[in-house]
Write a structure and sequence with these properties.
The protein has 532 residues and is of the alpha/beta class. It is built from 14 helices and 20 strands. The strands form four sheets. The protein has an eight-stranded parallel beta barrel, surrounded by four helices. Helix 3 links the parallel strand 8 and strand 9.
């Protein structure tokens, strides 16, 4: 691996490899409907620009966020958008990607037509394809060729091209070989405590895509409100909510931008808004005092209600993941859970045997909800403090652990989960939690601190876990939580998270130490997005 940042880094003295990287369909139709494994070659043109010459200095790597992993320098003028240039695709599967980059760069989209001088060609690799989401981008002879290992890789190649043109007006000569360091790279938004308009969410999705982020967590149910229209249970929905039509539009945009939406209905805690409409399912102790936001999972109707909601919303969202929550169940925060909630203790023993505990019952609840979403083809996720150890029942091994804190009662170190062979996603509240109003010792995270101190291996506090667990750490998400929703407007939130998102994206794409200083990185962000 080389990191080319500057004229002396990772360069060759000549362009040593002629790289044919496009997979294009036969014919010259502008429809882009064809799909072929044989790349087209345009006939040589007498008006073609001259081959790279020694009169040009060796190129530098394109300036992008996240930075590219490898760049082989070459001598030549690079590529700039021109009125005569267009975008062509070697596979109809890349039509959306081709149309988008054409619109962004002011070029004509010509679909499956043969490439011409000055064009951008998008293709898919054949044979040995490289890692998922990887791509190769070659700038040579006045043309840009982007070949992805898959559609996402080709898309990320267009993001590199777009950012380089935005920052410097040119895509430098040479070859970029790029790939992500982690498969899950994203942003998490709490719309339950603070509502956000669909347009605001769509703007964040576009920003995420340009940063090569691929996962958007949507926490839409909590004690304060349930924020998405329900056909099965309209009684639980807040007045200020997203319609299902708006959600379908958000999901469709995310899909076109290669972003997985990860919806979350937290249970058996954080259900206050649902329980307001179903008070008979509220958990109460022996004195009849309600446990805030807590579902009485000893009651048969509890599972029926939550599974009906899960069934409705898994169909609405589709996708690869579902977040089951499982954190902060208040029944387990009292000094003697069995004495306070004997109905839960009895239900645990009836279901799992005489030695079972309320923790076992909660773990069984989590596994049962995972069984609800698996038939929809979804991988289940849960917060780390909702996954217990040492009991009769263990959380299913395929449930991904979203590690956010070590501050909760009974919280275990990240290594405890990793040693069990579990996969973790990093949402370290020390660095990645933007909590409105800064309650409970939270402070707004800064991009500079993430950039300088955080990596995906920093899962709890500021400590690194061993590198031997690196493959089990699937990535991370930066998260906005609305604890004090009026502390900031949605516009202030967008501005406040801007540089933290840039920094998080950089570290998830390439966890190694960045070569730019923070001042340089921040200035580059301003050049890319035009916000200074």
């Amino acid at each position: 691996m080389t990191h080319a940042r500057g004229p002396l880094a990772a360069v060759t003295t000549a362009l040593t490899t002629a790289v044919a990287l496009t997979l294009a369909s036969c014919g010259s139709s502008d429809s882009g409907s064809g799909d072929s494994s044989t790349p087209p070659r345009a006939a040589p043109s007498s008006s073609a620009p001259p081959s790279p010459s020694r009169s040009y200095p060796l190129s530098e790597a394109p300036r992008t966020i996240p930075s590219v992993r490898e760049h082989t320098a070459a001598r030549g003028p690079g590529w700039k958008p021109a009125p005569s240039a267009g975008v062509v695709v070697g596979s109809g599967r890349l039509a959306d990607e081709g149309r988008l980059i054409a619109e962004e760069l002011g070029l004509r989209y010509r679909g499956g037509a043969d490439a011409r001088d000055g064009d951008v060609e998008l293709g898919l690799a054949t044979g040995k394809k490289g890692p998922a989401e990887s791509y190769t981008l070659t700038t040579r002879d006045g043309r840009v060729t982007i070949t992805g290992a898959d559609e996402a890789g080709a898309f990320y190649g267009t993001r590199t091209l777009k950012q380089s043109v935005e920052a410097d007006g040119v895509m430098p000569e040479g070859v970029v070989k790029d790939r992500p360091g982690k498969p899950q790279r994203g942003f998490n938004l709490d719309i339950a405590r603070k509502p956000y308009e669909a347009g605001w969410i769509e703007d964040r999705l576009r920003e995420m895509a340009d940063l090569k982020m691929n996962q958007f967590g949507l926490h839409f149910s909590d004690d304060q409100a349930f924020r998405i229209e329900s056909k099965k249970h309209p009684e639980v929905v807040a007045a200020d909510h997203l319609t299902q039509a708006e959600v379908r539009k958000i999901v469709a945009l995310a899909s076109r931008l290669h972003i997985d939406v990860v919806p979350e209905i937290d249970s058996p805690g954080h259900l206050g808004a649902v329980l307001d409409a179903h008070p008979g399912l509220q958990l109460r102790n022996t004195r009849g005092v309600a446990s805030p936001g807590s579902l009485d999972i000893s009651k048969p109707g509890a599972a029926t209600l939550i599974d009906e909601l899960l069934d409705e919303y898994t169909d609405l969202f589709g996708g690869a993941y579902w977040h089951l929550g499982a954190d902060e169940y208040q029944a387990l925060t009292v000094s003697d859970p069995s004495a306070s909630y004997p109905q839960l203790a009895n239900a645990a023993r009836e279901k799992y045997g005489s030695g079972a505990t309320i923790e076992d019952l909660a773990t069984g609840w989590l596994n049962d909800r995972a069984d609800t979403v698996r038939p929809k083809g979804m991988t289940a996720k849960a917060w780390n403090d909702g996954m217990f150890s040492g009991g009769s029942v263990q959380a299913d091994k395929d449930i991904e652990v979203e590690y956010w804190t070590g501050k909760e009662i009974g919280a275990r170190e990240p290594e405890a989960y990793l040693k069990e062979g579990r996969n973790l996603v990093n949402l370290n509240d020390e660095f990645l939690y933007y909590v409105l109003g800064e309650p409970n010792t939270f402070v707004y995270p800064t991009g500079e601190r993430i950039y300088a101190q955080w990596t995906p291996q920093v899962l709890r506090g500021t400590a690194l876990v061993s590198a031997r667990y690196s493959d089990q750490i699937l990535g991370g998400r930066f998260a906005v939580w609305g604890d004090l929703p009026n502390a900031q407007t949605t516009a202030q939130v967008a501005e406040g998270i801007r540089m933290p998102l840039y920094a998080t994206a950089q570290k998830l794409w390439d966890p190694t130490d960045p070569t730019l200083s923070w001042a340089q990185f921040r200035a580059l962000a301003g050049e890319i997005d035009g916000r200074g």
